[in-house]
Amino acid sequence: xxxxxxVLVLCTGNSCRSHLAEALINTRLGDRWQAMSAGTAxxxxxxxxxIRTLAEIGIPHEGRSKSAEEFREVTFDVVITVCxxxxxxxxxxxxxxxxxxxxxxxxxxATGTEDEQxxxxxxxxxxxxxxxxxxxxxxxx
Length: 141
What we know:
The chain is of the alpha/beta class. The chain has helices spanning 17-28, 48-56, 114-139, and strands at residues 5-11, 33-39, 78-83, 98-104.
């Protein structure tokens, strides 16, 4: 049995994008990668729309909002930052591991009706699925 590589998905609040990425990686690439997510200023909850958009594609996810400090002693193969809003302070990981930034807009900032907000969450979920999962697959070649 091969050892799975470890990836940390890092954001500021650890409530939406990083959880979407964690769940997608563990579902799509779980036999080769173990994903964890964290934030530099955890929101203290996982956004219900993030959980719902994952459930829509058959991925159960509960998760909890975690601090990056919980993982300071863990060695990661890759650390991916996913926050890309100019108003946000995207965190810097000072631990070991290849660092890469693959940014996405914050779906929690979406406005409008519930359907309109869910549409934004779906767009971000699908973009994360394509770009982050795709990036990790490219490392396996």
